[in-house]
Amino acid sequence: MTPPTPLKLLLSLILGVLSLFTGPAAQAQTSLIQNAPGRRVLSLNGSWNYIIDPYENGFYDYRREAFDKSATGKGGYYDNQKPSNSQEPELIEYDFDHSAAMQIPGDWNSQDIKLLYYEGTIWFKKDFKLKPTAGKRYFLYFGAINYESHIYLNGKKLGMHKGGFTPIQLEITDKLSATGDNFVVVKADNTRHTEEVPTINTDWWNYGGITRDVFIAETPGTFIVDYKVQLAKDDASTLAGYVQLDGPEKAGQSVTLNIAEAGLRQTLKTDGEGRATFRLPAKKLKLWSPLSPTRYAVSLTNGSETVQDKIGFRTIQTKGQDLLLNGKSIFLRGISIHDENPLIPGRARGEGDLRMLLTWAKELGCNYVRLAHYPHNEIMLKLADEMGLLVWAEVPVYWTIAWENPTTYQNAEQQLSDLISMGKNRASVVVWSIGNETPLGDPRLKFMSRLATKARALDDTRLIAAALELHRTPDNVVHVDDPLGEFLDLASFNEYAGWYWGGKPSEITKYTFDIKYNKPVVISELGGSALAGYHGDAETRWSEEYQEALYVNQIKMLSAIKGLRGMTPWILVDFRATRRQHPVYQNGFNRKGLISNTGQKKKAFYVLQEYYRQQAAKYDTGK
Ligand code: GCB
To answer: For the Glycoside hydrolase family 2 immunoglobulin-like beta-sandwich domain, which residue ranges apply (predicted)?
Structure first.
């Protein structure tokens, strides 16, 4: 074999960067349809046939050349080939229609026992009927597919996408069949790779498949693709935002913004790019808060199209170590949550599962949740708006990723942009988190500070944060001086005194904190494990009593921090994690939940609930 020339190497590097998003997916990612589920939709949820393909035989030929890159583009499972009536004996070595089916949305691990630990490719196929109406446009939309997906309609490739927790949107207007009979095929591959986001090492289950809703949105030829209707930065009397049209007639159009209940109505004109920005006086708005989660019916009308949303309005800002919601001090009574329904156990499959998680958080006394460690379902953000819970939303820049790889950075930035795009109209979202427990070092600081700058450029009305690193000195001082803190709005860090360090729960009150930043301290994690129903004394690891004592003493220790403005202990419910191997106490579950995987509340739940009751009495009454 001849070694590649430098030119060839350069070319392959450029192609590598471009291949992160190929086909229409690339365009789609820059402008996700705002409130896509609220458009006119045809749901493709339900039963999908699947084929397990660990060798990727449906994607590559025997020389390992991809079928979809061949001259005919044919040969892969996405052809969904069926025997024809010809006399020729045909060889077809797969058959979707006679293969097993699973429910979508839903991870594959929880639907077929032989897939519990599976990492690799699975093909999915769904038939649907849709006859396009002339003049309309159609978008195929997936809430999330973990991790790399190749998507085909009627045997033609639509695009490829990487990232397991952000929406995928593909225009299919010209690709629907005239007869109305269509089929969509998805190759989903959840193989972990060191250069991806997240990387190979995490403390959560690598659930594969089409884990969120699938539907087709129908829009007019020129339509309202995106909008932001929020309060201006730190200014409760000004409504600010934009409307973006897409389509051949996007320039010079009138769009009417109407918030009838607030007596607000304004007609805007789009510019040459189809965009109209606005700043309007908004004195009469009743502000959104956890105590009173007021949302307004907001409508945007362009010609025959009206898009409707329910939007709350609030401000969030920091002042030294104080944290102000609508100008008033607030204490964030939070809890961390994974996108998992422990009762399945598997990825949450829709509104019912998500509402159950948030109802538990409310019962705990929360006014705040950390949606760790990746973008959660858009429905979760809407429920948080409705139920009055503030949100920390995050991207899976987790532990040690490939800091020096430009493609890895682009990927992280894309996931962050998509998260912000999806959540920017939700009053509940007050924090964009750019990562969790990333290790100190120059390449990481460069990567993370660039991400922080990007987040601020995309949305200056929310706080930017990350779970920072800490270190201890022999004098029992815990130092938070991670240089990344300079770029962030909160002093947030994960702190595991009494579990990973610091001795028994009764010993941890000796620790004090030295926090370099004059910023609100919002602790992003603390906690320890307990197996529900296992009892011992406060020094018996894994017992409910140990976890209970740990929470009692954590609260004592943390209450001494000047500037403590909230916390999200780890975690609401036990969750599946391959790292957690102890056959008696863990059994494949991270047991730091305050609620077990069968829904049983552990003793520590009540400790935190009582602390939050006291904090609520102190802050929510304005005392
Ligand atoms: C952490 C991580 C979280 C883990 C947790 C644990 O610091 O951020 O993802 O699950 O600790 O249980 O160790």
So the answer is: 221-314
Best mutation site among 199, 201, 203 for ligand 1 pocket (most ligand atoms within 8 Å of CB): 203
492 CA from centroid of ligand 1 (Å): 14
For 545, list phi and psi in degrees, rounded to 5: -70, -35
Upper half-sphere CA count for residue 113 (Cβ side, 13 Å): 0
**Gap from CA of 527 to ligand 1 centroid (Å):** 9
Q: Could you write out the DSSP letters of every residue in 377-425?
A: -HHHHHHHHHHT-EEEEE---BSS--TT-HHHHHHHHHHHHHHHHHHTT
What pLDDT is recorded for position 88? 79
Q: How far is the CA of 114 from the centre of ligand 1 (A)?
A: 27
Q: Work out the average pLDDT over 606-610.
A: 98
Q: What is the dihedral of CA 265, 267, 271, 277, to 10 degrees?
A: -10
Ligand 1 centroid – CA 203 distance (Å): 6
CA 371–ligand 1 middle distance (angstroms)? 13
| 499 Cα nearest atom in ligand 1 | 13
CATH architecture, domain defined by 223-314? Sandwich (2.60)
**pLDDT more than 70, % of the chain:** 95
Give me the residue spans of the domains in the chain. Answer: 36-220, 223-314, 324-619
Residue 203 Cβ inside 6 Å of ligand 1? The answer reads yes
Q: What ligand 1 atom has the least distance to the C-alpha of 373? A: 9
Ligand 1 atom showing the smallest separation from residue 494 Cα: 7
Indicate if the pLDDT at residue 8 is higher than 80.
no
What's the pLDDT at 31?
Answer: 83
Contact 311, 296 (CB under 8 A): yes
Query: In this structure, which CATH number among 3.10.100.10, 3.30.70.920, 2.60.120.260, 3.40.50.720 belongs to the domain 36-220?
Result: 2.60.120.260
Which residues pair with residue 480 across a beta bridge? Answer: 515
Whether residue 24 has pLDDT greater than 70: no
* Cα 590 to averaged position of ligand 1 atoms, centre (Å): 9
DSSP state of 457: H
**Cα 259 from Cα 180, distance rounded (Å):** 38
What is the CA(281)–ligand 1 centre distance, in A? 44
Domain range 324-619, CATH class: alpha beta
Q: 570 in ligand 1 pocket by Cβ < 6 Å?
A: yes
17: pLDDT strictly greater than 50:
no
| Mutational test site, ligand 1, from 392, 438, 494, 582, max ligand atoms within 8 Å of CB | 494
Residues 6+ apart with CB under 8 A from 128: 42, 44, 182, 183, 184, 216
pTM: 0.95
